[in-house]
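User: Could you go from structure to sequence for me? I need the amino acid at each position, not a summary. Structure tokens:
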């Protein structure tokens, strides 16, 4: 899981960058191993490697057709040249959205001048973080959240939910955490709909019961 490179480009999306016609740049490698991961081919090794020059060449052909670029993965902030790539993309007039697990707040800090939107994954409560992500990076996630809260960059917090991994009590605890942080934006909960890859004998889809969520000042959305 140390192959941190650009491995693919999705040339067009209307769903991944709010109100923006975009493409997706996919990064391989991750420092978490989440039980519900649906991008295992990216988390592990990817034989395909694209250079920054190849990405720039592609984007030059999309000027006037696309408005933005999404960094996704894997975990994009592990890519050593992500700052250089962001500078080049921004200089071409494109907006940039970052999808991140928040494990590299120092990288997010350096990227902030070039970012237009961030989607931050809130994996679980602190107590369950190791079980779900197989990492000890909760404090880094919290640092990234604090950084975004103090910035002017638009962002959202989102959680992937599976009843075998997170209970409604856990979700309510996470809502309480965001309230204490004075998070005022929308909190998205994404019920998992594909079979888990690392845990056996779990249902392939999940129905999320909104009625079991506490009354909150947060704007909660279900995807």
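Assistant: Here is the amino acid at each position, in order:
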């Amino acid at each position: 899981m140390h192959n941190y490179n650009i491995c693919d480009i999705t040339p067009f999306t209307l769903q991944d960058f709010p109100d923006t016609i975009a493409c997706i740049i996919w990064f391989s490698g991750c420092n978490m191993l989440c039980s519900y991961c649906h991008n295992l081919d990216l988390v592990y090794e990817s034989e395909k490697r694209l250079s920054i020059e190849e990405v720039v060449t592609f984007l030059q052909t999309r000027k006037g057709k696309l408005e933005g670029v999404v960094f996704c993965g894997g975990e994009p902030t592990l890519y050593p040249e992500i700052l250089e790539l962001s500078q080049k993309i921004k200089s071409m007039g494109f907006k940039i959205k970052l999808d991140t697990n928040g494990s590299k707040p120092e990288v997010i800090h350096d990227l902030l001048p070039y970012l237009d939107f961030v989607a931050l994954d809130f994996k679980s409560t602190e107590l369950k973080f190791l079980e779900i992500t197989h990492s000890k990076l909760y404090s880094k996630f919290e640092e990234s959240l604090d950084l975004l809260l103090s910035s002017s960059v638009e962002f959202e917090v989102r959680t992937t939910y599976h009843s075998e991994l997170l209970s409604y009590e856990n979700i309510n605890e996470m809502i309480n955490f965001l309230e204490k942080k004075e998070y005022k934006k929308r909190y998205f909960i994404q019920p998992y709909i594909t079979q888990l890859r690392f845990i056996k004998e779990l249902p392939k889809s999940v129905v999320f019961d909104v009625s079991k969520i506490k009354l909150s000042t947060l704007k909660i959305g279900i995807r």
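One structural detail worth keeping in mind: The longest strand covers residues 6-13.
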